[in-house]
């Protein structure tokens, strides 16, 4: 089931919060409401995430941004372009790869 209109407005990119339970964005009502929109880092407010703090201790902001971009690139959904018939009773999805080649992902039986 899809997300409601209010959920899409509140969190348009469907981010998942990775903060600790004691973070301001989880403990306050205003934090839960605006955490996807509020640029807290511009006001000096930091989220509490012990894994992140331990992993990136001593790293510059540019190194952290580069790591985040790499993670987004790795977990990106493939660029499906069309559904194709592969044979009698077999269907698949045509996928455009990063280097402009195409591949096919076969769909399971029952389609």
Give a structural overview.
This protein starts with a helix and ends in a 5-residue tail after the last strand. It is of the alpha+beta class. The longest helix has 14 residues, at 61-74. The chain has helices spanning 5-10, 24-27, 29-34, 50-55, 61-74, and strands at residues 79-87, 90-96, 102-106. Strand 1 and strand 2 form a beta hairpin. It is elongated and about 60 Å long. A three-stranded antiparallel beta sheet has the order 1-2-3, with no helix packed on it.
Low-confidence stretches: none
Shape type: elongated
Distance N terminus to C terminus? 20 Å
**Which H/E pattern describes the elements?**
HHHHHEEE
Mean pLDDT, all residues: 78
Instruction: State the major sheet.
Output: 3 strands, antiparallel
> Beta-sheet strand percentage?
15-25%
Give the strand tally.
Answer: 3
What is the tally of helical segments?
Answer: 5
Q: What does the radius of gyration come to?
A: 20 Å
Assembly type of the chains comes to: single chain
Across the major sheet, the strand order is: 1-2-3
The SS-based structural class is: alpha+beta
**Helix fraction bin:** 25-40%
């Amino acid at each position: 089931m899809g997300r409601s209109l209010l959920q899409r407005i509140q969190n348009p990119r469907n981010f998942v919060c990775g903060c600790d339970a004691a973070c301001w964005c989880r403990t306050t009502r205003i934090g839960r409401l605006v955490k996807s929109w509020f640029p807290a880092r511009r006001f000096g407010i930091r989220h509490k995430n012990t894994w992140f703090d331990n992993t990136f201790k001593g790293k510059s902001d540019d190194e952290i941004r580069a790591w985040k971009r790499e993670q987004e690139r790795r977990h990106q959904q493939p660029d499906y372009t069309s559904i194709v018939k592969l044979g009698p009773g077999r269907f698949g999805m045509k996928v455009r790869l990063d280097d402009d080649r195409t591949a096919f992902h076969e769909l399971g039986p029952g389609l």
